[in-house]
Structure formats: C-alpha cells, structure tokens
C-alpha cells in the first residue's frame, strides 16, 4: 500500500471538510467518521495508519474510541479538542494519544504533526515501512514488490496470502479476529468462513516458519484470533 490511510473523526462538518482537504492535498488517503461508533466500525473494517480524533463526539466519546483502539493497536493518534485545560491534555495522552491539538488550530500545523508522527511510526524498518526484515534477515518482506524471502530465498505466496500478511504488517501489535481478517484482507463479511482464514494462515506458516507448531511470526492468540509476532 503506497498511500498511508488516515481516519479523521470529527462531528463538525466544516472542520472535517478542511482537515480532509489538507490531508488529501498532502497525498494521504482519508476516511471520515462523524461519531465514535462509526469510527470504531471503520477501524475494524479498514487498514488505518493514523487517526485524527475529536474528543467531543456523539454516541461514543473520543476518549472511549482512543481507549478501544489502544487495546489492539499502536497506530498514531492525534486528538482534537476545544478544551485548553492542562488536565484534559494529560488525560488524553494518558489514555493513549500521541499528540494533542486545541481548537481552533491551523490545518497546516495539523499536517505538520501528521507528517512527523508518520515519519516516526513508519520509518525505514519500522513495522510499516515498504521493506521489512525480521530476525536478522531470516524473513524479508518488500511490500511494493509483493516479495517475500525466507533465509534469502524467494517464497511464493499467493495474492490472498500476501494480502493477509500485509494486514498483519500494516497493523503492528494488533490482535485480529478471523472476522476482522476476512474484512480487512478480502472485503468479505463473516458468514462461517473462518476456515478460510485458518487455511491461509496454515499455508503462510508452512512457507515462512521454521517450526509450524511454535510459530515465530503469525501467532495464535487463543480464544481471539491471530497476531504477527514481535520483531526481534
């Protein structure tokens, strides 16, 4: 995925339109939500690289959205608020925000902070760089070339296997249910197709793991689903 995808969660339409326009001008793909519930739905359904999150939202608050995202993902989050009290900022950072902007703010400043967070989070050899290496070169992944190497030798992943692997790599540290993997990788709604995911995982493990029974990379989280193992 060449373009980084940003989710903007804001219930004030004018602010939403301006932020979206500035971010798109910078080359980002932008998804939007005007309430917390929809934001969480999009986060589960799509690959997201950064969230711009208003605190004062209908249905589900920005604090709740941030907390729920943080239970499964480390992606950058920038919080927006009309409140300028220091306690509010401390609270926002304490529940997992990476940065904080008080309204009214300059769209150019927001773009600058987005760029800075993107550089830190997705710098070369970070979990979302285009070229990744794991365990001193044991596994190499070139996202742009759709290329995977194991111990220096090319691994022939099918397009669907690569899509699934890319979901894991694009969401560092996140635990996925089979339902989420189906939707994020293939756009499928859950309808008893969990065996499809299990089959793909089994095939990927056969190609990239030294020990399929004790996998280093795609690990089973019992009772939940799967995650990509921590890089070493």
Automatic annotation (TrEMBL):
Positions bearing 4-aspartylphosphate: 54
Q: Which positions, given as ranges, span the membrane?
A: none
Record has Transcription as a keyword? yes
Q: Which residues form the Response regulatory domain?
A: 5-118
Quote the DNA-binding region ranges, renumbered to this chain.
Answer: 129-230
Q: Name one GO cellular component term.
A: cytosol
From the UniProt record, give one GO term of the biological process aspect: regulation of DNA-templated transcription
Domain OmpR/PhoB-type, chain residue ranges per copy: 129-230
- One family name in Pfam for this protein: Response_reg
Q: Provide the GO MF annotations for this entry.
A: phosphorelay response regulator activity; transcription cis-regulatory region binding
Question: Which UniProt keywords are given for this protein, alphabetically ordered?
Answer: DNA-binding, Phosphoprotein, Transcription, Transcription regulation, Two-component regulatory system
Highest rank taxon of the organism:
Bacteria
Q: Does the keyword Translocase apply?
A: no
Q: What does this protein do?
A: May play the central regulatory role in sporulation. It may be an element of the effector pathway responsible for the activation of sporulation genes in response to nutritional stress. Spo0A may act in concert with spo0H (a sigma factor) to control the expression of some genes that are critical to the sporulation process.
Kindly give the PANTHER family that the UniProt entry links to this protein. ALKALINE PHOSPHATASE SYNTHESIS TRANSCRIPTIONAL REGULATORY PROTEIN PHOP (PTHR48111:SF73), REGULATOR OF RPOS (PTHR48111)
Name of protein: Stage 0 sporulation protein A homolog
Q: Which organism is it from?
A: Anaeromicrobium sediminis
